[in-house]
Design brief:
single chain; 120 residues; mainly alpha; 2 domains; 7 helices; 0% strand
């Protein structure tokens, strides 16, 4: 399982580099797969999906997106599944507001610098 994940990640690195071959000013994009966040997220996701071969194959399939950036973050972020809750964004905002309230309560001197329009 670990070997297969490593092989698939190597394919992703090569696909990412190939997508930007011959283009100027794209060094960061070429090496995007080696970003520490991508490396850790790839490994975490591969482990998480190890019991679900269909979704794991979809995860590994990112490297097969030829002719374009396989790690196109805007396209990946827009993706959704029919089971994704519509209220997820609202939940994240509520958590952010709660965090801001706690921060202001426990660190009042620093809390004055926070944008008060974000809290109730």
């Amino acid at each position: 399982m670990l070997r297969k994940a490593g092989e698939e990640f190597a394919k992703l690195i090569l696909a990412q580099r190939k997508a930007f071959e011959g283009k100027k000013g794209t060094a960061d994009y070429k090496e995007k797969a080696l970003n520490i966040a991508i490396v850790s997220a790839w490994a975490y996701t591969a482990g998480l999906l190890s019991d679900n071969p269909i979704r794991l194959d979809r995860h590994y399939g990112l490297s097969e997106k030829t002719g374009r950036d396989p790690l196109n973050s805007s396209a990946l972020a827009k993706g959704s599944h029919k089971t994704d809750p519509l209220t997820l964004r609202a939940l994240i905002e509520i958590i952010d507001i709660a965090y801001m309230r706690i921060y202001k309560r426990h660190f009042p001197a620093k809390g004055k610098d926070l944008n008060s329009s974000l809290t109730f």
